[in-house]
């Protein structure tokens, strides 16, 4: 059953009056969800670099500026908006490439309802629509000095196209050779606490006196690159991830003995005596929890490094001949400025015309949204995209883009 096309942004011009007595500074769409109208686009006074959002509450006649969670799409020349399942608005961004053209603004999903309770305000959450699935992330945990980083480095070196490291944020100072953005994102405590408050972290914990955390973006960026994400986090963090939306494999690395652990920490020579003692004290509790908490799917003993690495590869399905990572298709489309979006059952049809010398074509892009997974905060995966060329002489071809 077809439905009316969504709002055509092409009719909107800079500075027009939107009928709500609100001064618009750019392209906007209006989507009704219950007794609220979500005005998406333009630029809020506080938002010049990303798409702005305002809500008109018809029951009170008041405007509300919501708390906006998740990574936002950049401002664009226009977009179309269409309501899905009464709880999220699908946005198609004009003039962008396939990997950046579909976004979801969650307005009444379970996640958003939870966040509204926590924030005590109106909340909306962005999620980027992406094609394809990523393999389950791997969470590696264990006491400081057990060899997590060493094992992860071996894995990344041997399979660079298969694994990607989730770069954590921390308030601790960098060690001599550590690079910002590579080993960690080194960040001030106030900034990190503020980002945590705004829902940017999948998990965070106070570890050995400093704050550490995995941002949602760190994990999603690895999945976007088509690689399997590896997280090196402590046991508290692993517990939080276990309780989160992320479906991961959890591996705990155990030292052969406390004495050996102490020797490794001392030999590494990166901590002061006081810090070493603190890490060793924490290690005992971590090992106990690692073995008994039920968080972890597997426990590996790192006595002989080579043997432990072999066992890790075995767990990850890399024993014997390792599979070659499939790179995602890099085909991109760039819908021109004049297009409309309509909804047919679970499929969105983006309709546009192109003119080439001696050839006029009507093109359709069909988005199948029936098998969407995940969502805000982060990415909505499982979008299937087909492009259809309809030349004047009829159907020319259907291309599966994902
Ligand atoms: N099986 C092993 N036998 C001997 N030394 C090892 C073994 N595994 C790792 N090491 C050494 O132990 C030290 C600590 O290893 P690593 O830095 O990888 O630990 P980690 O678990 O990542 O620690 P942290 O949590 O503090 O980052 C390093 O100097 C490393 O070379
Ligand atoms: N909960 C989290 N723990 C993390 C994260 N990143 C690292 N860690 C853990 O901290 C300790 C200490 O690390 P170090 O680099 O200072 O030696 C170690 O156990 C790491 O696993 C994180 O994002 N979240």
UniProtKB/TrEMBL annotation:
Domain Guanylate kinase-like: 135-317
Catalytic activity: GMP + ATP = GDP + ADP
Transmembrane segments: none
Family: Belongs to the guanylate kinase family.
Name used for this protein in its record: Guanylate kinase 1
GO molecular function, one term: GMP kinase activity
Enzyme class: transferase
EC number, UniProt record: 2.7.4.8
């Amino acid at each position: 059953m077809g439905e009316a096309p969504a709002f055509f942004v092409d009719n909107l011009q800079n500075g027009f009056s939107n009928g709500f007595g609100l001064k618009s500074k750019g392209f906007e769409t209006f989507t009704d969800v219950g007794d609220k109208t979500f005005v998406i686009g333009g630029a809020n006074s506080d938002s010049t670099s990303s798409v702005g959002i305002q809500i008109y509450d018809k029951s009170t006649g008041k405007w509300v500026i919501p708390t906006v969670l998740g990574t936002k799409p950049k401002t664009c020349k226009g977009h179309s908006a269409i309501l899905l399942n009464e709880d999220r608005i699908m946005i198609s961004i004009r003039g962008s490439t396939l990997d950046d053209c579909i976004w979801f603004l969650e307005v009444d999903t379970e996640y958003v309802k939870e966040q509204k309770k926590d924030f005590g305000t109106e909340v909306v959450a962005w999620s980027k629509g992406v094609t394809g699935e990523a393999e389950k992330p791997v969470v590696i945990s264990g006491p400081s000095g057990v060899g997590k980083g060493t094992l992860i480095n071996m894995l990344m070196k041997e399979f660079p196209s298969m694994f990607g490291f989730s770069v954590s944020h921390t308030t601790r100072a960098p060690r001599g050779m550590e690079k910002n953005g590579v080993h960690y994102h080194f960040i001030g405590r106030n900034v990190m606490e503020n980002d945590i408050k705004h829902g940017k972290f999948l998990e965070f914990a106070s570890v050995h006196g400093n704050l550490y955390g995995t941002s949602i973006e760190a994990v999603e960026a690895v999945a976007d690159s088509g690689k399997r994400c590896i997280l090196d986090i402590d046991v508290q963090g692993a517990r939080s991830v276990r309780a989160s939306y992320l479906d991961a494999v959890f591996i705990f690395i155990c030292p052969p003995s406390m004495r050996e652990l102490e020797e490794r920490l001392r030999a590494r020579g990166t901590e002061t005596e006081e810090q070493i003692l603190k890490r060793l004290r924490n290690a005992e509790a971590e090992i106990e929890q690692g073995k008994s908490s039920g968080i972890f799917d597997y426990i590996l003993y790192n006595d002989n490094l080579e043997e432990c690495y072999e066992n890790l590869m075995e767990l990850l399905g890399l024993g014997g001949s390792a599979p070659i990572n499939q790179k995602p298709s890099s085909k991109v489309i760039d819908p021109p400025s004049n297009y409309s979006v309509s909804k047919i059952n679970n499929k969105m049809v983006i309709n546009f015309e192109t003119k080439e010398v001696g050839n006029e074509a009507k093109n359709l892009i069909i988005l199948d949204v029936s098998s969407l997974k995940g969502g805000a905060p982060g990415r909505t995966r499982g979008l299937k995209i087909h492009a259809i060329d309809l030349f004047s002489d009829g159907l020319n071809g259907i291309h599966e883009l994902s």
